[in-house]
Write a structure and sequence with these properties.
With 151 residues, the protein is of the alpha+beta class. The protein is built from 5 helices and 6 strands. The longest helix is centred in the N-terminal third of the chain and has 13 residues. It is elongated. This is Integrase zinc-binding domain-containing protein.
Amino acid sequence: RRVVLHRPRAEQQEGERPANEAVSHKTKEMYYSPSEYENVEPAVQIAHGFMQHLSESTEGLDLVAVLKGRYGEDQFFAQILENPKHFKNFDLKEGLVFIRDANKCLLCVPKILINGRSAREIVIRHAHSILAHLGTHRTLCLLRDHVWWKS
């Protein structure tokens, strides 16, 4: 797939071509070559980086380790821990709770405080920083692909 960049166009009547302008043909200069994208991280690397970032954050907090054993503090996840057979979409693995969603296992984030901050806030901040502040939509997409919480 190729990306075409156009220069700003002068205002004109819809469907009308300026009289002094002939039909122009697209040149190679208007396209990006694949080699120009070599420095862009593939989505798989970003995804792996996100889960690794949760474990080795810059704030000195191993969020995955902190979440282990803390699900009982959240009323919703406490019910899952008491009767895991009643919640077939949830898996308990190594002290963490995961939800199965569309052939993926998403890490569940309980509603708990860690050092006075919400665990969910910390996850959102990590997602935002790993994407290099690319905006709310991309942050939300990354979160949807890796974590889940009851809202």
